[in-house]
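User: quick one, fold this
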Amino acid sequence: MLCIGIDAGGTRTRLLARLDASAPWTIQAPGVNLQRDGLTVAVRHLGGLLRNVLRRYPGVKAVHVCVGVAGAGRMDDRERLATGLREALDPVPVPSLEVVPDVWIAHEGAFAGEAGLLVLAGTGSIVLAKSEDGTFHRAGGWGRLLGDEGSGFALGRAALRAVADAFDGGPATSLTARLAERHGLDGPEALIRKVYAEKMPPEQCAPDLLAEAERGDPVARRITEHQAHALARRACWLTGRCPTVPPRFALVGGVTDNTYYHTLLTATLRTALPGWTPVAPIATPVEGALHRACRLANTDG
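Assistant:
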């Protein structure tokens, strides 16, 4: 029996495959977002990874798959993606294949399937609560046009805006020199070209913002604190309407791997949620996906 878990985030994709009781095999690849990249690209990208797994494990009699995908909040989108992935695995029998939002597998990994509050800050952001009765509730996840507070995208875009403000005569910031050195943004023309013509992803500048904030740049610190408070506010709103969620929260997502931001966001959440306790995630999102796939296999078996 082959079980496969996939964590397909906006920036990178991770896959774990386990045949029976053997050690998992892992693949890392570029990210995919179902809304940003579209169904065809998502099927081609993820289907290609699944076929790589089948080549490594030839002759398997059944495959059980859980795929957590960024931008997969709509049920009809998930069903269409699942259909495409089943076709990619043909002719191998697939007794169970589920496509879920990437935050679901992150919650599964962080709390081992138990109740709790998950704050995800990666390329985008969302807050997901699981109550004691197993019901999921969410806040945020509105995407970069309407939300994504505290995310890599929001942090990076704010850094670019701060540099644009400085070019216009606004507050001086060490971000100007850093983005010039690291990304070639040495003047207004270069900034416009990188953002609009070359379409540089703003989230690439999030590590630069956090580095300058940690070094004490006032502009970078104000931005970072504002974004952390905006994300914590979503968590506060969510817990206010979901009173049966146990008072514990975990942070996941690429931006929270930064120690400075992790510490800041944790402190901000503790202030916004008095009496709540931060906990370390038990497992990674891709491990959560593999756990779900194995659980599906046991249910189907």
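User: anything notable?
Assistant: The chain has a mean pLDDT of 93.
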